[in-house]
Write a structure and sequence with these properties.
globular; alpha+beta
């Protein structure tokens, strides 16, 4: 079966869809804006340009280097959030800070570099600044890693939303983040995909933003990790988008869906008939990919950990509603069950879950490569 992007390409051939892209030869734009308590720096720069963001102390500051690129943007930027001011100094952009910060996002795509920081703890910032100082870097000639599929991991809840809380006080937001970070290490060690997390620390991310995070990056797969509460239920399970297949699935979806956000594909300027066909094909392909991933997860987890009866279920979780990214929601267990809670508190059990899910994801990616080769 053709992948969703292949289907889109076939239909897009019905219309002329020029995508002019300006060839940039320098840094030509720079903006600094507040994002809640944090700040976002956006630069326009040539695709593939090398860049590095470093931390320094006495005083606290960040230094952004874009070697080999003339600076034709503003040389001074008004402060925002924890950044008091920014200015060019010695061929690099200096961002003076009101205090230590943590890196929230650093991503270069489509001729644009976006860096987001937020107030952080003093000790980690001091350790970083006292070492290599490098917070993030990228660019250069695209290599094999740039062509690898992207898997987005979504640790549920976070920040002001702790999720479920077990009888022993275990918070869902903490165990799922720990498991996601372990799974990230497993996947990156395998070398078959790139990995991004919707959150890598204890912060709140809206449901719609989690979905858009994956869609903006054209993720190949979205995996949301949870450890919910459901009295009487025990064991791991996996959910794909659909009408609630039973009362448990429906109740879990209602619990998680605190907010929903409308939004569809950004379709090209073709006739409504072609748009309708394109949307239908992409949605169908996405659901097939999601179901295939769910089967892999059930098979691999079932080898190592207790499973809920009828372990693959369907429900209308908001985070599964991207029309163009295959997605599954994995309940690693239920904190309402003392046995599951005790297991999820243990690092060795979370590592076992990560290894099993890593095998499932690698298997799913391998199937996708086989299909692509067959239709070469």
């Amino acid at each position: 079966m053709l992948g969703r992007r292949a289907l889109a390409s076939l239909l897009l051939g019905l219309a002329a869809l020029p995508r002019p892209r300006e060839a940039l030869a320098a840094v030509t734009g720079a903006t600094l804006e507040a994002t809640g308590p944090g700040a976002r720096l956006t630069l326009r720069l040539p695709a593939g340009a090398r860049w590095r963001l470093r931390a320094a102390r006495s005083p606290n500051r960040l230094l952004l280097e874009v070697p080999g690129q003339p600076w034709r943007a503003a040389t001074r930027l008004r402060g925002a959030g924890p950044v008091r001011a920014a200015r060019m100094e010695g061929g690099r952009l200096r961002l003076d800070l009101s205090g230590p910060v943590a890196l929230r996002r650093a991503e270069a795509s489509g001729g644009q570099l976006v860096i987001e920081v937020e107030p952080g703890a003093a000790a980690p910032f001091a350790r970083l600044a006292g070492g290599s100082g490098t917070m993030a870097e990228g660019g250069g000639a695209p290599g094999r890693s740039a062509s690898l599929p992207l898997v987005v991991l979504d640790p549920g809840h976070g920040g002001r939303d702790p999720g479920a809380i077990g009888a022993s006080g275990t918070q869902e937001k903490r165990v799922v983040l720990a498991a996601a970070l372990q799974l990230q290490r497993v996947l990156e060690a395998g070398g078959h995909c790139r990995v991004a997390l919707t959150r890598s620390n204890d912060r709140f991310v809206a449901l719609g933003d989690r979905v858009e995070f994956a869609r903006r990056r054209q993720a190949a797969l979205f995996v949301s990790l949870h450890a919910d509460s459901a009295p009487g239920a025990r064991g791991a399970s996996v959910y794909t988008l659909g009408e609630s297949s039973d009362s448990l699935a429906g109740a879990l979806a209602r619990r998680e869906n605190l907010a929903d956000r409308a939004g569809g594909l950004r379709l090209p300027s073709v006739s409504p008939e072609v748009q309708a066909i394109l949307m239908s094909l992409i949605r169908a392909e996405t659901r097939i990919g999601s179901a295939r991933m769910a089967q892999q997860v059930v098979a691999e987890l079932g080898e190592d950990v207790p499973m809920l009866n009828n372990a693959h279920r369907q429900a209308g979780f908001v985070v599964l509603k991207a029309p163009d990214v295959p997605a599954v929601l994995v309940e690693m267990g239920f904190l309402s069950d003392p046995r599951d809670e005790a297991a999820l508190r243990r690092a060795d059990h979370r590592a076992k879950l990560a290894r099993a899910m890593g095998r499932a994801i690698h298997g799913w990616l391998a199937q996708g490569r086989d299909v692509a080769t067959a239709f070469g």
